[in-house]
Amino acid sequence: MLISDYFARLDGPDPLSGLELVESDIEFLLALPGNEVSGRGLEDLASYISGRPAVGRKHRVLRSSRDGELEMVYGVVVEGPEEKPTGSFASAGVVSPGGKLARYQSFFHPTFSMFPEEAA
Questions:
Q1: Which CB contacts under 8 angstroms, 24+ apart, belong to 36-44?
Q2: Which residues have CB under 8 Å from 54's CB, separation 6+?
Q3: What local confidence, expressed as pLDDT, does residue 118 receive?
Q4: Which of 77, 80, 110, 112 has the most CB atoms in a 10 Å sphere around its CB?
Q5: Please, is 92 exposed, middle or buried when counting C-beta atoms within 10 Å of its C-beta (0-12, 13-18, 19+)?
Q6: Helices H, strands E: what count in the chain?
Q7: Residue 90 · residue 107 · CB < 8 Å
Q8: Can you tell which superkingdom this protein's organism belongs to (predicted)?
Q9: CA–CA separation, 91 vs 71, rounded Å?
Q10: CATH number of this structure's domain 2-11+22-119
């Protein structure tokens, strides 16, 4: 799954390598508590990625699906060596004919989880 690979790169030693998986004119929306980040293009997405605090976070994908060009994943964000859950996310993306993300949206919530038993 492309989105899972994107998260693995964001969480890895070179977060900006995730940009290799998106189209140059990607459009995105990241809905965070009290804040929405949206943009278009590699420069906007790179700016967001570079501005994220380095807290040792990981996206742990719990469910994923694909229907045609649409990918969807659901999971939890964990932080630190003990992988303490900090919230859940639902992300969707449209994969271009070239095999890259063309449109992407992600919603994060710090307290609600679809699968509470898996978020702990």
A1: none
A2: none
A3: 64
A4: 77
A5: middle
A6: 3, 6
A7: yes
A8: Bacteria
A9: 8
A10: 3.10.450.50
Q: What pLDDT, in 10s, does the model give residues 18-66?
A: 999 999 999 999 999 999 999 999 999 999 999 988 778 999 999 999 9
For the entire predicted model, the pTM comes to 0.91
Strands 22-32 vs 57-67: parallel, antiparallel or unpaired? unpaired
Contact present, 76 and 117 (Cβ < 8 Å): no
User: Which residue's structure tokens are 């742990």?
Assistant: 60
How do residues 67-84 score in pLDDT, each as one tens digit? Answer: 999 999 999 999 988 889
What is the spatial distance between Cα 77 and Cα 85, in angstroms, rounded to a whole number?
Answer: 6
DSSP assignment letter at 21: G
Structure tokens at 2: 């492309």
Burial class (CB in 10 A: 0-12, 13-18, 19+), 55: exposed
